[in-house]
């Protein structure tokens, strides 16, 4: 497969993952699926916008660049038509690096949030973080410490886990594009055929 065609496949895969990450981060603004009374009731890591900025917006740029590489009809440079395509493939490496940084940020934020646990009411008055250092992950019996919103621990874990897994997949796809971009830069669009 040509390196431009492979990049297009990666772009097609990255777009829905970016949308999933955006949606997960937006849903986290609604603890337990309910509208929070005030912003202090929402887990702090949600406001770091790992899914919106990191794996969402910053991932859309590489995805669109990768989609355009297949149809890239650069006019060339120095009288060499393949030079433009090689430069475009080199440029895709830079955008892939941006994607890795954005998705990496999302992975870090998600990991911290999962370890920290959700912010919830331990009684009808106090909102706090009742869990420490991920101790709730292996001990489900202490989940009852969160009185409300109902199901907040499951909500928190599910959405941040989806965000983390999707971001890890994005990192993998961007790293594939770095390799693909290097091959396209060195060999041209198709190593086995004409440039």
Automatic annotation (TrEMBL):
It is a multi-pass membrane protein. The chain crosses the membrane at residues 12-31, 46-67, 87-108, 153-176. GO terms for cellular component: membrane. Pfam families: L6_membrane. The keyword Cell division does not apply. The keyword Transmembrane helix applies. Keywords: Membrane, Transmembrane, Transmembrane helix. It is found in: Membrane. It comes from the Eukaryota. Belongs to the L6 tetraspanin family. This is Transmembrane 4 L6 family member 4. It comes from Triplophysa rosa.
């Amino acid at each position: 497969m040509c390196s431009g065609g492979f990049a297009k496949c990666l772009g097609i895969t990255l777009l829905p993952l970016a949308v999933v990450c955006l949606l997960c981060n937006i849903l986290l603004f609604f603890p337990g699926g309910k509208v929070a009374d005030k912003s202090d009731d929402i887990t702090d890591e949600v406001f770091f916008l790992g899914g919106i900025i990191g794996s969402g917006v910053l991932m859309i740029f590489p995805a669109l660049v990768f989609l355009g590489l297949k149809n890239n009809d650069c006019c060339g440079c120095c009288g060499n038509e393949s030079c433009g395509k090689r430069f475009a493939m080199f440029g895709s490496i830079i955008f892939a690096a941006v994607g890795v940084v954005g998705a990496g940020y999302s992975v870090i934020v998600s990991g911290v949030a999962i370890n920290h646990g959700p912010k919830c009411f331990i009684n009808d008055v106090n909102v706090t973080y009742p869990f420490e250092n991920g101790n709730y992950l292996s001990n489900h019996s202490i989940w009852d410490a969160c009185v409300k919103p109902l199901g907040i621990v499951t909500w928190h874990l599910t959405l941040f886990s989806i965000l983390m897994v999707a971001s890890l997949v994005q990192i993998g796809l961007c790293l594939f594009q770095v390799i693909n971009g290097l091959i396209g830069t060195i060999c041209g669009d198709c190593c086995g055929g004409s440039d």
